[in-house]
From TrEMBL:
GO terms for molecular function: flavin adenine dinucleotide binding; N,N-dimethylaniline monooxygenase activity; NADP binding. This is Cyclohexanone monooxygenase. It comes from the Eukaryota. Coiled coil: none annotated. Keywords: FAD, Flavoprotein, NADP, Oxidoreductase.
Amino acid sequence: QNSDVETELDALVVGSGFGGIYACFSLRKLGLNFACIEKAGDVGGTWYWNRYPGAMSDTHSHLYRFSFDEEDYKNYPFTHNYLYQAEILSYLEHVVERHDLRKYIQFNSEMRSAVFEEGSNRWRVTVHTGHVFVVRYLISAMGLLSQPVYPDIPGLHDFKGTLVHTATWKQDLDLRDKRVALIGTGSTGVQVTTKIASEVGSLSCFIRHPQYVVPAGYREFPAKQRDEINSNFSAYWDNVNRSMVAFGFEESTRSFASATPEERERVFEKLWDDGNGFWFMLGGFNDIATNPEANAFAADFVRRKIHEIVRDPEKARVLTPHDYYARRPICGNSYYEQFNRDNVHVVDVKENPITAVTGRGITTADGVEREFDAIILATGFDALDGNYTRLHIRGRRGETIKDHWSRSVTSFGGVMVSGFPNFFMVLGPQSPFANNPPVIETQVELIMAVIERSETLGKKTSSGHGQHAGVVEPTPEAESDWARRCEVGVEGSLFKKTSSWIFGANVAGKVFATRFFFPGLRPYREFIESSIREGWKGLVFT
Ligand code: NA7
């Protein structure tokens, strides 16, 4: 064994975003010997990479943060109801400094492979530099949206101007007065549009699949509201953790059918004025995502708004979605209003697809070539399992995670996989579809409870030998059971009928699978609590 290139530890954390930071904090609390490796040059994860103009979280500020540090929660300043990327990144840096976690993190270190050695029950993790970590517990906090997708357009890399994916933004990129093309109209494309439309020379949005975009409602956060939340901290967070999407609003229990046409109109008008995508989908009625009639009403409401706001009927036509309102809900700051600017154009690439990128610009099926100085790809991510299958992660009997997920993408509670002992994921596939920080806290706390129990049992069985060889993994049955719960949870949902990254539809050849637990955070936490109560049902500790 060469100690220069091998480090033996109890645990290794991969990634230093919200998940990795909390995992480091928690491992230290458990008293384990650990390190964290991070591909980037600093902490932040998603918020380190996604520095594109307009990048912000669409969760309200008071819920896009940790709750584990009550004092910090109550005091860390924010001014508005949403946080932009730079603010979130500063916050995460602050948490790392406050808890003195930086010393555990090795930056510019990308995990290339992780192999479970059955004889020693250890993970052998190789970093791109050749350095190897030999650890008992491997905790992946690589994020759920971290592997950018580049569209398969002929000539893409022949472009002579600036080609940039939003997730690898070039900090010195100056778009002022430039002719800019934007491909992609998901959350990211919408945020980019609202920020740069007024700054660039021209902006041409290539729209294949327009989405329903409601206002974000960006405004100052009332000090009084913050005081109220702070003085009811425990009860407030208890409510958040007992809600479905953990967005801090009251999720409606009322059916669409119970309201008169006038009431429906009033309800959506108020939701539109208040802002927020999740709120719009879940705050008015409880069946927008399941009842086609309710969904059609909400969709039609947004379509009417588009035609009221966008003055040019051709632009309005291209911006109007026609499928179900059942993708990840999107909101933006005056998105449709941007299209009333003379310098903002739309190109309908559903009717007239992109055929190639040339040295000068983009050509479409009608033979037209449009010239640009910059092309922005807001084309999304190979989400969830995509972060894992690109790496060589090998569990028992030589099975890789890619093999494991070749037919269906399943896990135990989004955190563990059978045949991959002592391997944990934060926001792995089949995690709750909800605001991420509370999901992350829940999952990291679950992972730590599992590790703690494994440690205790390991110590007991190996007393006298100085060995801590606890091994824990879910049974295949427990994994199938969770997968079944995920399937049941999405039954009847219009999300399943609408192609998007949520089911893997955005990446060619990716398995169509239910990658989230749609019932949300409350039933997720109840499932965990009942599994623990029933003697850690589903997990085998050896
Ligand atoms: P999304 O939501 O996956 O959106 C990607 C967009 O890129 C979407 O509009 C795609 O259109 C479009 N796209 C991809 N390839 C092409 C080509 N070849 N031509 C035209 N348009 C294309 O990614 P985001 O980054 O916006 O958001 C991902 C999540 O990150 C988001 O939900 C938040 O949770 C944060 P399509 O719909 O496939 O027609």
